[in-house]
Each structure stands twice: as C-alpha cells, then as structure tokens.
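Worked Example 4.2. Read the sequence first, then its structure tokens.
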Amino acid sequence: MSLPPGFLDELRTRVSLSDVVGRKVMWDQRKSQPGKGDLWSPCPFHHEKTASFHVDDRKGFYYCFGCHAKGDALKFVQETENVSFMEAVEILAGEAGLEMPKRDPKAAEKQDHRSQLAEVMELAVRFFRLQLKTQAATEARAYLARRGLGGEALERWEIGFAPEGWQILWDALKGKGVADELILGAGLAKPSNKGSKPFDTFRNRIMFPIRDARGRAIAFGGRAMDPKDNAKYLNSPETELFDKGRNLYNHGPARAAAGRGTPLVVAEGYMDVIALSEAGFASSVAPLGTAVTDTQLQLLWRISDEPIIALDGDTAGVRAAMRLIDMALPLLEAGKSLRFAVMPEGKDPDDLIRAEGPGAVQTLLDQAIPMVRLLWQRETEGRVFDSPERKAALDKTLREKIKLIRDPSIRQHYAEDIKELRYQLFRGNRGGQSGPGGRGQGGSGYGQRGGGYQSRSRNQGGFRDGGRAPWGLPPTPRATTRSSIVASNEGQDFARMREAVILATAVTTPTVIPEFEINLERMQCVDAEHAHLRDLLLRHGIDAPERLRDEIAHALGPDALENLLSLRHVAISPCVRKPGDLEMAGLTLTEEFAKLESIAGLSAELAEAEEDLDGLADEALTWRLRQAAEARNRAVRSENEDKATYDVGENGARLNRDERDAFGALLDRIGFTEK
C-alpha cells in the first residue's frame, strides 16, 4: 500500500517517541531530563543493568550506546512487536487517531470482501466454541481433557467442535443473513454435486481456529473424532484469506513472545503448539498441514534468526527434517540458520511434556544441534565406508549439498565443519564403519603410507603431507587463495565499490528497481550498511518509490544517502549525474551485476581448481583454467574500462595485479602455459 506524501511526517509529529518507548522501559530518573526531552533507560534490545539507551524526544530518535540500536517510533514498534513497517504504521496511526489513507476503489473493494470473509470466519469461531459445550461434544471434551486441556486453555485457544450433520453450520450462518458466496468463499462449505444445497466442510471434528499474524481468523484445522475417518486432520481449503504455505499456526502470539527474547520453536501440529505454549514455550508455531515451505521459512527467520525445529521422534519426523535441510541450504544467510531438536523415538512434544514435564523439553531445546550436524548424520549414519569408492561417494554427495549454499562465507564454514567431521570419522578407522552420528569404530588407521590421506595434526591448519583436504575448502587459505579477488581485502573493496554504484543507481532512479528485484535480493553485500540499504530498496522502492529517500533517511539517518552519493566512484557515475534516466540506469545495473558475478565466478573456479590439483594437470583441468583465464581477462578489461572512465585509480590497478598474481601462481604450480 502506498502512503501519500506527508502522512508519515504527520504521524511522527502526533506520536511522542517517549510515550511509545515508555511502554517497554523504566526511565532512569537520575540521568533523564523529561522537560528537555532527554530520557535514558536500560536498553530493551539487550540485557544490561546500566542506562545506555537514549531517547531524544524532540528529534524523535533513539540510540543505544551498548548494542547500537537506533531508529524512530516506527522502527521501535517494528523491533519490539516483531511487525512489518505497514503494521507499525497502522498501530501508531490508531494510537494517534490518524485515519489510514484510503486505497484505490478496486483495492478497497477487494479489501472489503476480505473483511466480510473475516467477519464470517469470526461467526464460525463463535459457533464452534458454543458447540463444544453441547451434549454432542461430550466425547470431544473428554478427549481434550485426556490431552491435559482445561477450561481456561480451551478458551485461550478458542477450541471448538463441528457437530455431525451435513448443513448445521450452513443453516446457522444462513440464519444470520450471511450470503451463500461468503460462506463458500470462506471455505466453510462446499457445493453439492447432486444439486442440493452446499454441505459443511467440517463435520464431527475438534476445531482449531487459525489466525494470521494480525489476529484475524482465516481458516480452521479440524481433528476427526471418528478413528475411521480418512483424514485425521483437515485444514480449510485455500481461499482469498488463507494460503496454507504462507501462514503459521500461532504466528502472532509467537512473534510477540519471540520479540521478548524467547526461542522460536517449530512443531508439527496444533496440539504440539498448544502443549508447548501452555508449558511455557510461548513462541511456538507449526506449519499448516504441509512440510515447511520456503515462504514459511522466511516468515520464521523474520521472527527469529535461529528457529529450533522440534520434530516428532519417528521416521516421518526425521524425514521431514531432512527435506527441510535440502530446502533451507540455498536460502541460508549470515546469522540465519536452523537448529534441530529431535524428540525421543515415538514421541512428539505434547507426549514428552505430559510424560516428563517441561524440563525434558527444555533439555532437548538446549541440546538442539546445528543443521550441518544433521546433514552429516543423514549422509553417514548406519552406512559403511570400507572402500575408497564409498568414501569418494560420500565426498561427492556432501560436496553437491554444500554447493547449494549461495553465501560464500557460509559455504566455506560448512566445508570446514564437514571436513572436521570427516576427519573424526576416518581417523584410525581403516574399515570406515560409521556408528551413531557418523562416528568411526575401530580400524587400524585410514591414510597410512601408500594410500589415502595422512592423518591431520591438531596443531596444523592442513594435512601433514601438505596436500589438499579430501574435499571442500582448505582449513586455512593458501597463498594463491588469499590473493584471490573475492577472498582478499582488496576483493572486498572491489565488491563494496560495485555495490555502492548499484545502490546509488537504484536510489536515484527507483523506477528501475522492479526490473532488477531478483538481482538485488541475491546480492550478498559485504558491507552491513549496504545490506540494510538494499533491504530498504526492496521494501519501499517498488511500492512507494516517491517516499524511498524519506524512508532511507529515517532508517539510516539523514547522512546515509549523502555519504553514499559523495563517494568518488559513485559521484562520477553517469546515472547519479542524470537521475531518472531509466535506460542508462538499466544498462549500468546490468554491467555492475555482471562484474560482481564474473569476479565471484572466477574466485570459485580458482578455489575449485585448487581442490582438484594433485601434482599434475590433466586436460579437463587445464580447460577449466583456460575458462577461468578468460573470465579473469574479461573482469580485468571491464575494470580497466572503469579506470579509464571513472578514474578508480591505484586501487583498481592493484586489484588486477593481485588477481593476475594469484592466477599466475596457480598456473605455475601445474606447469601450465597459456598460449
């Protein structure tokens, strides 16, 4: 939704930052001077005893001198309530008595229809809750009591009951004047194929309302009371309100709890989430009848940087964890990962809580293993590696998995961890028998003279024979790798320069952003400020380009854009000199993204070629090195063109020399001469 010019300024004028922050903190009376709008408190974003969190009420900004958190009232609501920007605007506008701007007629009509559907869903919630108190729900109430849910919990989770009968809910809603198309559109009934009136979607089921992050009822999950029912659990069909792959059960409450510092736990079903929350694990969610989707994974990462996946301790639960690993690997970012807490065999979190109490669950959560360990366990547990071929197959499988990781830094750390696990598996283990968790058992030592790898010394960064590691990246970079354009400090400078030009081009000509949205999303920024600016471009540059600069100023401070645009290699860019030239901006971004990709591809090719060096070069390797040489030459030519056009100066020439030195050292090592 696009906000009109001046709306945010009016909102910030009406809202007092000290009032907004004051709901979350206790002001330090000794340091604070309320009359001057100068207020201090312990920081709400990190644990501390001293008052290092400063609010300047007159300027409308806060800053923590401990964790360096900063922003305005909107930013504070976003961070403390775990809500999106527009949700924060709506929250503060409601408090300030400022009416949200109206949408265009078509959008308003669509929103009105969605609001009507949500109202029908609320009627259904109330109907099912009343039905749980009837004689027909005696068995359902007994089942819920056996699962440890008392009256307060039933009210808190709004659990209800759908009685047997084909049109009981339908007739109840029609009796309240609800139109047919709204009942059908909400997924509460289905049309009959026999020409009779529609029939209820849910019958003889315990009903769990599903609410979105804003608290609106959008769907239901129903647990069958009949053990012979084909579907034990049944979710609402997808509707205008409900997309099961884009929502989470208990999303809103879990997000609020996670914002207070509790770990985010991902369980499999409704009862698991309810049991966990009632036991004190308030930030618990579950996917809605499917395996976790990539969209749901992004939702989880918005709530917490490292969700804990608490899966059932059965074959299906472990299999779901393995599928999640494969999906998550390409999406990993620095600081964004997953940990896994696998329940005891045959138990889910609800079973464990009822059998052993919350402490048992807490122990498992504390012992949750990182994703790399579960990946290793999947590929090694229960398998025998008693031949070079089997060991090579393991290396190939793991190499392919790690190549899925897009972030080069994370990819390197995964390689190092797996390499250490491989060393532990095969040291002193000629037989290669894997035990629990991939641990080796017995054997006389893999890597004795005459075959394999030498055992690695604990106080060395590599192998005693000086050879390369069995797979992945070496523990410490070689000289040639250190001088690679991406691995080096100069390489980071190069990438930072390219990022700056890309971001400045997008800021000065925001209409080009939609065309390059995917490229911006995939751009791995080496500079944290660049990454923040990239996120702001993606968040506001498409829907509201007219207020993009204002949002950047409020998020990063008034000097952020000035500092970016004043950089010499940015200031002389034709796009910055001629803002709004869409064609020039498109050409510039195409070229700049190509430069980043060519240098990254060259560095990856050099690193992979280093892995494959084994004293002699074969035809395939020399062909690959020629390709790398050509990529190097293209990058060098492009950078030299920059130097001629933009006068990047001495730093640009040094980058080229370093890359030539790195590449030349690699060619010399194998005795390859480029013709």
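Now turn to a second chain, presented in exactly the same format:
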Amino acid sequence: MVSISWLYFLIFLYLSLSSISSPSPSASFPLCHPDDSSALLQFKNSFSIDMVYTPYHGRSCGAIPSKTISWDENGTKDCCVWSGVTCDNRTGHVIGLDLTCSSLKGVIHSNSSLFFLRHLRSLILSYNDFWGSTISSEFGKLTHLVHLEIFESGFSGYFPPEFSYLSELVSLVLSSNDELILDTFTLKRIFSNLTSLEELYLFQVDMTSVEPVSLMNLSSSMTSLTLDFCNLQGNLPDNIFYQWPNLEKLSLEANENLTSFLTKTNWSSPLKYLDLSFTEFSIDLPHLTKSMKSLETLLLSNCKILGWNPTLLLNLTQMTSLDFSFNNFGGQVPWSFLNLKHLTYLRFQFNNFTGQLPDIYAHNSSQISFSSDSSKNQSLGPLPLYLECISLDGNLLDGKIPHWIYSLQLLQILTLSDNQFTGQIDEFKSRSLKELDLSHNKLHGPIPRSIFQQVNLTWLDLSSNNLSGVVGLDEFSRLQNLVCLQLSFNSLSLSSEISFNYTLRRLTLLHLSSCNITRFPNFIRNSKHLLELDISSNHIDGPVPNWLWNIGKDSLFYLNFSHNFLTRMEQLPWKQLQYLDLQFNLLEGQLPIPSSSIVVFLISNNQLSGEIPSLICNLSFLEVLDLSNNVLDGKIPPCIGNFSYSLSVLNLGMNKLHGRISATFAMGNSLRNLNLNGNQLEGLLPPSLQNCKKLVVLDLGNNKINDTFPYWLESLPVLQVLILRSNRFHGFIGSSKTELSFRKLRIIDLSNNEFSADLPAKYFENFLAMIDAPPEKLKYMGESYYQDSVVIAIKGFDIKVARILNIFTTIDMSNNNITGEIPKLIGKLKAFKGLNLSHNKLSGSIPPSFRNLINLEWLDLSSNELAGEIPQQLTEITFLEVLNLSDNRLVGRIPRGRQFDTFDNTSYSDNLKLCGFPLSKTCNNTSDEAEQSSPKSFQNFGDLEQRNGFNWKHMVLMGYGCGLVLGISVGYIVLFNKQPDCFTKIVIKYWRRMMG
C-alpha cells in the first residue's frame, strides 16, 4: 500500500494546486456549495456509527472517531471545513471525500445522495461496514473521478459496466472478500476506456471467469498492477508483460491456478516490485536476477523456481524486501549473498535451511563479520541496520538466537517458530517490535522484561517451549495494542492480576493453555472482539463467571476450557461459535446446547445428566459431537440421523443410554466414526448403517445388543475398526458372500459374545490390511480436530488407545463358543500385532504357518481344546512378548530359543502332557531333552573337542568341583552360543584357579 499512499498524495497535491486560483481583489473564497452540503448530510444520516467495527483482515483503525461526527457541528453549513472533505476553492464544490475508518455502518443504495456529488475527483470509503452494498452503476455518473478507493468495506455483486464512463480515472483500489465479481466481457468493456489508468489494485475480487489474455485491455500507462487473491486461472502469455512498458509494480499473489513462464521477460522500464507468490509461474531465476537488477522487492513464496543458487542474490544490489518462503530450499541461510546494506524485509519461511544463524562481530561502524559452522569470520559488508522483518519459521535451524538480532533498532517483525532454537531469550535493545513469534522451539528460561516494554506489540507467541518462571498477568497492561497473546505449553506460572483497572480491548486471540492459572484473566473483561480463547489444562475451578458471557459474544468462534475443574456453565451465548471444547471438567446438570453455528462440540468426561435434548438436532453444521463419559440417560434422539450429512464423528460412549438404536442414517451421509460403547443399548442394529459408506470406526461394544453377526457391514468400503465386544451377538460369523469383505479392516473385536460355529476362514483371506506390509508413513487415525481412540485388550489388559496408529492391527474373538480348527490361512496376516482366540472350543493343532506372523506381539489361544505339539516354528516370531497356551490338550516338549526362553509357567499351565523348560516337569527321555535344548551344539560336539581340547568330560569334572548344576549350565552356555573358543579359555582359566 506504500505506492497507493504515494500516488494518493500526488493526486491530492494536484487537486490542491488545481483548485487554487488568484481571486479578484473583491472576491473571497466561497463556502461549500449548498447542494453538496445537503448531499453530505443526507449521506451521513443514512448510516449508523459503529465504533467497534473491526475490518475483516485486521487492519486497525485505532481509536479514531468517525469523521462524520463533527459534520454540521455548532450549526456550521460550510462543508469545506468538515473532516474528510476537500472543496474546490473557486466553486465551493466538493472534489474530495475521504471517510477512511469512519465507523459507518449501513448500505449504500443506488439512490444514495453520494452520487449527487458530481464534481468528486477523489473518493475513499475504505474500512467501513457497508456489508450488503453493491457497486452501483451510479458510480459511473462520477465522471470526474481520478482516484477511487473502496477497501475492506463489504461491497458485493457484479462489477458494473458503467465504470467505463470514468475515463479520467488514474487509480482504482477495490477489495471484496470474493463477493465482487468481474468477468471477461465487463473487464474488456471497462478497461478499454480507462486509458489514463496507472494504478489498478484488486484484492479478493472474483475473477474466476476472466481469461488472463484479456488483461491486454488494461491501459499501457499502467505503472502498478495488483490482482491478489482474485482466483485468476489459466495461462498468462509471457508477451503480455510488454503491454506495460512503464510497469514498476506487479503483484499476482495467491492466484494458485495461474500459469506463465517468466523466462525471457524484459521490460523497457525497470521493475521495482514483483510478487508472484502462490502462483504456478515458472521462474528462471538466473535470468530474472540478471535482467531485473532494479528490483527492490522480490516475493516468490511457493513458486516454481528454476535454477536456484544463492549466489544469484548478489545480482540484486537494490534489494530491500525478499521472500523465498515455501520453496524447499536447503543448506544454510544465505546471509553472505544478501544485500544487508539496504535489506529491510526478509522471509525464508518453511524451507529446509539447517544449521545455526551466524554471529556478528563488528570490526567498525560499517563492516561486520559473520561466523557460523561453515563460514568462519567471513566479511559480509555493512551491518543490517535497517532490518524490520526477519521470518525464518518452519526450518531446521538450531543453536541460540544470535545477539545481533536483539540489537536491531528498527526490528518490527521477528518470527522464528517451528525450529530447534535453544538457550534463553535475550533482552531486546529497542522497543520497535510489533510481531514476535518464537513458538515451537526449545527455548528456556524466563520471559525477558523487555518484551513487556514493547508498547507497539500486536502479536506475541511464545508457546510450546520450555520457558519458566512466574509472570504476573498485570505485566501485560502496557501492551495495549496486543491482538494475539499465546503462551501455552511452557512451564510458566501466570499469577492473577494485582490491578483490575486495565483491559486489552484489541485482543482477538488468547491462548494460555497449561499456564498454571487459577482464574479467568480479568484483562479480557472488555475484549468485545475476541475470536479465539484457550485456557485449557489449568487449575480453574467453580462456575464460569457471569461476566464471561459478554466476551466476544458476536465474534468468538474458538473456545477451549477443557481439562480444568469447572462445575457449572449455564449458557453458551456465543453466536458465531464453531469450536467448543469443555472436556475433562466437573460440569453438572443438563447438556448445554451451543448456537447453530457450531461445527465441533466436545464435552466428554464430565458429570452431565438427563436426556440428550432433541434441540441438538438443530445444529445443522455440526461435524464432531463427543458427549462420552458422562451420565446421560434416556434414548438416543432419532433425529440424530437427520443431520448425518455434515456429522463426521458421533461419540456417545460411556453413558447410561438405553433402548434401541432408532436413528436412521440417510444415504450419502458423512459419518466417519460412530462410538456407542459402554451404554445399555439393546435390540437389533439398524440396517441403515449400511448407508454410512465413509464409516472408518464403528464401536458398539459393552451394550446389550441382541443380534446375529452384521455381515452386511461388509459393504462398507473403508471400515477399519469394528468393535462388537461384550454384547449378545450370536450365531456364526460370516456370510455366503465374502469375496470383497472387510478388506480395510485392521481392528476387529468380537469377544464376549455368543458366536458359535467355525472361524470364518474366508474373512481371514480377505483381511488385506492385515496381510499387506505396514504403510511407509506412520500416522494416527482421525483428523486434526479429533483423534480416533478405542479401548481394546492388549497383552491381557484392557487399554485405551488414545490415538490409533495406522500400523496397529489385532483380532480378538475370545470368550465365545467358536468351534473347529484354526485356519492355516491365518498365517497370511503378516502385518497384525495381536491375536486372541481364547476361551472358545477350538480343536485341532496349532498351525505351523504361525511362523509367518513376523509382527505378532501377543498370542492367546488359552482355554480351548487344542491338541498336538507346539510347533517349533513359533520360535521364529521374534517380536512375540506375551504367549498364553494354557488350559488346552497340548503334548510334548516345549520349544526352546529366542522369545520362548522368556515365557514362564503360566504360558503353558493346565496342559498335562507338556514338558520341558520352563515347566518343572521334565520329558521322559533325558538325552532327548538335552538334544532338544541344544540340538545343533551337541551334533557338532566332536568338532568342538578337536578344536579346543575341551569336551563334555571336562564339563562333568567342573561339576564335581563346583557343583553339577553350575558345570552343566556353563557347558550349555558354551555350546548354545556357538562361539566357545574365547569363552572356553576364560572358563578353563577360571576353573584352574578355583581348583588351585
């Protein structure tokens, strides 16, 4: 906006000079023309004054009173002296109207008196609240306009073709938040007539249907072209740049589908400002840095940069602002190639830069040296005295933040988040900071006192570090410009304010999670425009105070009070609330219902009682609803199925809900996670669950559901978790059609039911997610705002898996009446971690194919009727930690080796014909037992004798001297480890010393 302000100054200088004439001796400057005065008053009276209006993009108007308040004050009718009004000194007509930040609220209709001001040459209506207004065709009647600026004021609708009548327009500035639409036809008609246009600034104007080549219709006089966030699409021909030989500024930021090749482009007039961030431009960087040496600002964030080489930056000798963020550049930050003499703005965010930032050693007032791991005492020229912005977020930088950064006198923005910086935060030497973000590092120590002296600070984020110490909340009283304050996830203790006489009125984001606070901070009492409030994981107890109901009542969209000790929250008055987290408190009473705008509602782990109100079904935008772990009773409202088009997560687990699951889930619903575990639900499953084609997690465990196996769930294409444990399901498991069944299933728990018949062999063949190798990329199931969890038996214990890894696979069919043999096909499930088939009526032998279960960590086949020997192949399962084969009819010797040497008696108890280690019962044939214990060692014993001169007789002799058990044990260790040469020498030497 610097160029806009400069152009605006020149325009007004021109208007002021042109309006001054040499009046005759008898003439005096006329008063405001009465028609214009009347029109201005009518325009003023058509609006209300909203002093609390906050522009959408956060541009603050401060405490500036509305310019229209002084109009007609004390009865004066001379509008030429009114604030924001400029008159022609010869005619008295209004030629300039600047109502920036005037807190006007209302609609500008086509019959507005504004359009009576036909002599206007400059009109600025930016930063007001005209939401609902259209860019009326009546603007075309202001034919003398030279400068028109309507920024952040809420206009919408189609761009009127009547703008083509503004043939004298030199500067046009418009923004609309995608509500103002410009198409190709209108663009051609308008801009072919605006031949004097030099500056065009369109921000978030919807240009989706504009053909990029139609920009050729823009005036060749263009010096500044900005089309940011306009959704331009298609290819912009590279020869189009020759259309504007005087172009000094080009900004096409965030047109993500706009392509072009910036390879051979060369303007006859030097370009000073270029912003192609977040476009699909292909940029030949060697050519650009060679041919555009007059560039002062180069912003190429997230572009297709060809030929990156940091040495190319040496060509940009006039550079003041540089942004290469989001480009995956590696190596060290190229400090030695930057124009530090003039640089004011530096952004290298979210790349892969590594190492430490260099230290500076000043040799004199103009020369410095930087040193780092790779460049020791390398002279880099003048000290960067003019740096105002350093943004290096999201890299791999480490070490301490160098001292010279704290010494920069003009530094306004310092963002180093998401790195690995260590050490303490030093004191800042100046008070110029406006934005400080050091979050997600490894910084420690106290918050420096100088931060509380940064009176211009608007953004402070120190969250997710190891900062410590006690900070009084009254320390923030000096920071009256704060918009964002984030101190979460440190080791800080924030004490209550000593004084309650201050508020942070401009605050919009406050995150104080895990800050050891015991009460709601009083400085937010008058924060009318709060957008986000997070005071989770603290020690706040008792009811929510009444004064909090007015905080951000019309603006708050994120609220997190979870993990405290709140007991009562009688109302949820916030009209725009989208995210509400009240989990893990002590809330009692009826379930509160938030406003219809809510998207995520989490209120689990409280003490809420009563029925779920049917009003909850009015929440038409709801995506996540978690009411689990309360004492809610009654039935599930049938209407819950009505809003399943938006609902993704429904968790009503661990309550006292009863009756049937009567909800009807509509076709095309979005349900991804349905958890009704731990209630008293009964009856049959609703067949409409087949309509939940996006269902990934279905947990109906621990209820009283009486039904056969729901084989029709096979049709759910992405189902991964199926929990039916501890119900009254009965009959056989499976169906006649199993070719494409449960292919994504990774966790299945059917335990503690009444299933009978044989194991479903074809299901085991179709569990592709358990057959395939684990995915390369580990991730948790769920989404950013909600992580899937499940309670499941792992290694004999019921454990809540709070976050489910995508490699976690298990089958539990224990405590049923399943008969038959264990299918050999089960050996194909190479990826799964646990198998529990205990407490059934399985017969036959343990399949040797179990050897293929290379990732198996627990195996429970206890309390069945399995017979035969334990296959020696089971010793090949190297990750096996828990084995339970007790209470069967197994016979023979227990295998030895690897994990089997770690299992105790309980793994084999109540198998009367098993013998060998670790049981006390020895096998009948002692020699056979010894051979079983170490078969390969004894087969090669003769070779051992010849090599070492140390044989079994020596071991027996050792037994005479030191005890039989010790002798045999040493012998076993020697032979079993297969590396006796060195060890036997040590043993013999030790034995000889013992024997004297």
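Notes for the reader: The longest strand covers residues 466-472. Residues 2-19 form the longest helix (18 residues).
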